[in-house]
């Protein structure tokens, strides 16, 4: 997969980059590639998610897949609103999510794939990390010619552990690490240690938001400098030859 065939749009986030959109606690990111579209998580509120999708001029029927990182309400709360308008989507969940939830999703969608602990290819050049940590959370990896694009929902199992697993599996540099890094309760020393680990994994760009925490975002910005992206609701990111070329709201 070529990185310049990918576009990322954050549709739900409590960190806001675009005041024309409605910001609530939670996370969702729309992933567009040449061959498929994926809605990564669905935020906490379906009505707000639909409103933000409409304002971004995206079409719900164009969503091919839904990827749910984990079962917390702020990441799955909007799924019913999507399924009411598009029941042809395929859903990817981990094996630790409720069996009743999986049963209902099978009824309301075009099928459910259950992901276990190991990294798993879910679509061409698109992988789940497999579940990590006590919350059994999965992240998504886009395997591009220019490196790995990793999107995390909340990183309960450690954003550094997510990056390590992706790096070990592919043995490639990380082009972009985006999403919730879950560092709001960490002190400076702990955060800086995690940042050092992520940098040592040959990570080029970082775009933390959602549950990362304001202090952690400041420290990532200090360490990554021009390769830090001030991410949040409404941001659109696209790529060209290993560099981010379109970073707008």
Describe the overall structure.
With 249 residues, the protein is of the alpha/beta class. The protein has a single domain, classed as Ribonuclease Z/Hydroxyacylglutathione hydrolase-like (Metallo-beta-lactamase, Chain A, 4-Layer Sandwich), CATH 3.60.15.10. It is 27% helix and 29% strand. It is built from 7 helices and 14 strands. Helix 1 crosses helix 3, helix 5 packs parallel to helix 6 and helix 6 crosses helix 7. It is globular. The mean pLDDT is 96.
Helix proportion: 25-40%
What can be said about the biggest beta sheet?
8 strands, mixed
Our estimate of the beta-strand percent is 25-35%
Q: How many structural domains can be distinguished in the coordinates?
A: 1
| Number of separate strands | 14
Tally the helices: what do you get? 7
Report the CATH C-level class: Alpha Beta
The low-pLDDT segments are none
């Amino acid at each position: 997969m070529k990185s310049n065939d990918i576009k990322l749009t954050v549709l739900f986030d409590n960190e806001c980059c675009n005041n024309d959109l409605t910001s609530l606690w939670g996370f969702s990111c729309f992933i567009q590639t040449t061959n498929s579209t994926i809605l990564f998580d669905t935020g906490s509120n379906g009505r707000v998610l639909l409103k933000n999708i409409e304002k971004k001029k995206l079409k719900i029927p164009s969503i091919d897949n839904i990827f749910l990182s984990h079962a917390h309400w702020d990441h799955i709360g909007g799924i019913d609103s999507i399924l009411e308008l598009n029941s042809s989507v395929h859903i990817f969940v981990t094996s630790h999510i409720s069996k009743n939830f999986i049963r209902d999703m099978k009824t309301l969608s075009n099928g459910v794939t259950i992901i276990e602990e190991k990294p798993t290819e879910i679509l061409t050049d698109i992988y789940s990390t497999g579940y990590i940590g006590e919350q059994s959370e999965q992240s998504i990896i886009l395997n591009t010619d220019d490196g790995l694009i990793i999107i995390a929902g909340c990183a309960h199992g450690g954003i550094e552990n997510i990056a390590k697993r992706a790096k070990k599996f592919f043995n490639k540099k990380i082009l972009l690490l985006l999403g919730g890094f879950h560092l709001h309760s960490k002190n400076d020393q702990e955060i800086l240690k995690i940042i050092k680990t992520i940098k040592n994994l040959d990570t080029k760009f970082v775009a933390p938001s959602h549950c990362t925490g304001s202090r952690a975002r400041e420290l990532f910005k200090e360490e990554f400098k021009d390769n830090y992206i001030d991410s949040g609701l409404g941001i659109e990111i696209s790529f060209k030859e290993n560099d981010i070329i379109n970073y707008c709201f």
